[in-house]
Amino acid sequence: MIIIATPTRDTVTAGFAADLARLSRRHPDLKFLAALGIYIANLRNYCVNFAQQVGASHLLFVDSDMRFPEDALDRLLAAPRVHRGRECRATNRAAVVDGSPR
Questions:
Q1: Cβ–Cβ contacts within 10 Å for residue 61, how many?
Q2: Which of 26, 76, 89, 90 is the most exposed place for a label (fewest CB within 10 A)?
Q3: Contact in structure between 89 and 18 (CB atoms under 8 Å)
Q4: Around 9, how many Cα atoms within 13 Å sit in the side-chain half-sphere?
């Protein structure tokens, strides 16, 4: 299972929503997780914990005001190296992008 996670205060842009819809058509098994709140580090930690609990193979963070091409996920999955996010200072845990446990 692949999860696209978006920590956000309360809204997403129309362009983001359109890009997510196109990406979802390419990957019907894709799950979207919108984490609502104001403390981004806590929201990211919540998303990582959720992805680990449900056994997600991949987790991709996308900001709610970002635009991305329809093949963005395909290109990341085809990349020859593992991509990892930066460490969250609050808990010193990495935001897992490839789904492997830390």
A1: 21
A2: 89
A3: no
A4: 3
Q: Are 42 and 96 in contact (CB under 8 A)?
A: no
CB 88 within 8 A of CB 41: yes
pTM of the full predicted structure? 0.73
CB 1 within 8 A of CB 32: no
27 contacts 73 by C-beta, under 8 angstroms: yes
pLDDT digits (tens, 9 = 90+) for 1-20: 999 999 998 888 999 999 99
58 φ, ψ to 5°? -145, 150
